Structures are given as structure tokens and as C-alpha cells.
Amino acid sequence: SKVRSGDRGALFSKRDTLPRLGGQTTFPVVTEIALSNLDPGDYYLTVEAVSSLAANRPISRQIPFSVTSEP
User: Fold this and answer.
1) Which of 10, 34, 59, 63 would disulfide-bridge 45, Cβ 3.0–4.6 Å?
2) CB of 60 within 8 A of CB of 46?
3) β-pairing verdict for 41-49 and 2-4
4) Is 46:61 a contact under the CB 8 Å cutoff?
């Protein structure tokens, strides 16, 4: 997972490798991101998954979010 803002590089980046278990096709993953380290503004969280069976076909999603200052 990565957090980016506009044309700036990654402000947060973390990579996890999950074990392959039999026929299991979904895995819950939790990652903490300290929003207090981010300036107010618009950001994108990118999550990417790659299967060990199809390493050349990653799947990713971008989720927009905003950080606001406290009143």
C-alpha cells in the first residue's frame, strides 16, 4: 500500500507478503497509517495485489481521501 499526494512521491509505503493457504482466496489485511504525519490536503491510497500464480498481472485500486486540520 502507498499514500501519495499529487505529483509528490510516496509519503507512506508498506509491502506485505501473505502465505499461500490451500484454497483460500481472500485474506484480511490491516495497515495503520498515521494521518497526523500528513499535511491537510487530498491524497490517494493505492492498494496492489499480486498473485503468485499470475505475478505479471497485478491488480490495484486507488482510493481518494482528504486530511483536514482540526478546528
Assistant:
1) 63
2) yes
3) antiparallel
4) yes
